[in-house]
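Write out this protein's structure.
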Amino acid sequence: MRASNLFQTGKFIAPALLLALLNSAPSLANGYPAGGAFQDNAKVVASTPVYENINEPRRECWEEEVRYEQRYERPNRRDSNAGSAIFGGLVGGVLGNSIGKGDGRKAATAIGAVLGAVAGDNYADNRRGDARGYQSSEPRVRVEQRCREIDNWSRRLTGYDVTYRYQGQEYTTFMTRDPGSSVRVNVNVSLADN
């Protein structure tokens, strides 16, 4: 390409660049970009911490002594009480026989024998264990672990409710950090409709 062609091309580019600079000069001279949007500082009026309550339960365990009796069923309970029932029946029959006369004596002997057998059976139950046929060993102690959940509340800082003032107006927002004495704000200026 020849130098004269470069010079002619430069004739057209240089004025276009100059024109673009002149058009943006008034808005840059006022401190605003050409589009009407810019950033500015606003004064912080209040900054209030915001907390969240959080529960992180923990498990607490301890050992505790527990007393217990080991119960076991007596084998053949009726067989083991048979001797006591028979003995009680005999004693009751003898006592009943000594009370009555004639036919009354026979009835008293029968009633005495029945009551004596029941008394002998109950006596044997009380000596060997309870009436249901169980016996208890000596009380024993075992150690058992007991646990429970305990609430563990804490407060965690989540951010700040911030109130700031710009051009006489107050605004509120939430921020994750404390902004200090001022914040940067975006401002957009546009022509109002007539």
